[in-house]
């Protein structure tokens, strides 16, 4: 399995791109502004998009992807998400006001967008990958994902505060090599992190105490203003854990 990090920032500006990961060459995990890093030919290869939740930094480029490839693909792009997330996308994005409804374009019988409901705990197989929706706790309905291949696995928390069920699910995973874990705010903004159901270093490290495995912990979703400070706090206070900072352009093999 090969995961290319197209975007992993909690904001934009300069080189910062928001959350979007490419699994192999045809599967996206979220579709934030990092999706713009792909060439036109690479965009044409996308067949599946697994969405953690409907906040803009995770779906901003999904409408543009569909608009870009609509005249060149003969098969739809399949968007997998929970029923609640798909309802938000239908109601607030693909509603003919913010963006056309690509689930009926260019025609109802051959639309470029296909929605597939993916309940929490459900697993989909795409090629050699088994993708499972994991529990998460955010301000809107959200999930994380477990990506499992023949030789190893990787987990992504999505946007989430402390979620015991997430760690419970991971503690039973064999050959888990990486956990991509969000930490959006520094400790000085711990109250903002709490009310927005994100992590700050203190709450993230406390939550990590629920995990019994030894996977490498890759930190994502850092806000640009305090990204360096947040990582300093994590490395100082979490010395017992194998932390590193997820980087745009990084390729993870598992």
TrEMBL record:
One of its GO terms (biological process) is cAMP catabolic process. It holds the Pfam family Lactamase_B_2. Gene3D superfamilies: Ribonuclease Z/Hydroxyacylglutathione hydrolase-like. SMART domains: Lactamase_B. SUPFAM superfamilies: Metallo-hydrolase/oxidoreductase (SSF56281). CDD domains: class_II_PDE_MBL-fold. Residues 17-210 form the Metallo-beta-lactamase domain. GO terms for molecular function: 3',5'-cyclic-AMP phosphodiesterase activity; 3',5'-cyclic-GMP phosphodiesterase activity. This is 3',5'-cyclic-nucleotide phosphodiesterase. The lineage of its organism: Bacteria, Pseudomonadati, Pseudomonadota, Betaproteobacteria, Neisseriales.
